[in-house]
């Protein structure tokens, strides 16, 4: 699963290709500037959610809000899709995505800190990979459907 991702690809020609693609497409100044309105919206949403929790509970657990904002930033930049965590129709798919991301991060930590149990890590990866592929395939199909309908798609 992770051998093809830029952070885990072995040093060599494939890694250099991924780095070139990232720097010329994902992290190009024009692309970063183009996503500024989305980052501003994520920040506004973060501040609103924090203020709402503060007024309701008196205290705020920032981790959840920061994770939601980071997830929205990543999803908006990579897939052109952001979530409104307060809406019920977005909340279900967002929770599914957040659970996959959490599992992925746990597995990343497991690779570094728990080399004694590679079988368990491999089994968890084997269960996560199809879920991630299904999610990404759904996003791609959504883009294709919108393209066929003539919708103006963001360049993500």
TrEMBL record:
What terms describe the molecular function in GO for this protein?
heme binding; iron ion binding; monooxygenase activity; oxidoreductase activity, acting on paired donors, with incorporation or reduction of molecular oxygen
Query: Is-annotated flag, keyword Metal-binding?
Result: yes
Cofactors (names): heme
Q: Which InterPro entries would you find in this protein's record?
A: Cyt_P450, Cyt_P450_sf, Cytochrome_P450_78A
Output the superkingdom of the source species.
Answer: Eukaryota
User: What Pfam families is this protein classified in?
Assistant: p450
Listed A to Z, the keywords are:
Heme, Iron, Metal-binding, Monooxygenase, Oxidoreductase
Annotated family: Belongs to the cytochrome P450 family.
* Protein name (record): Cytochrome P450 78A1
Q: Which organism is it from?
A: Acorus calamus (Sweet flag)
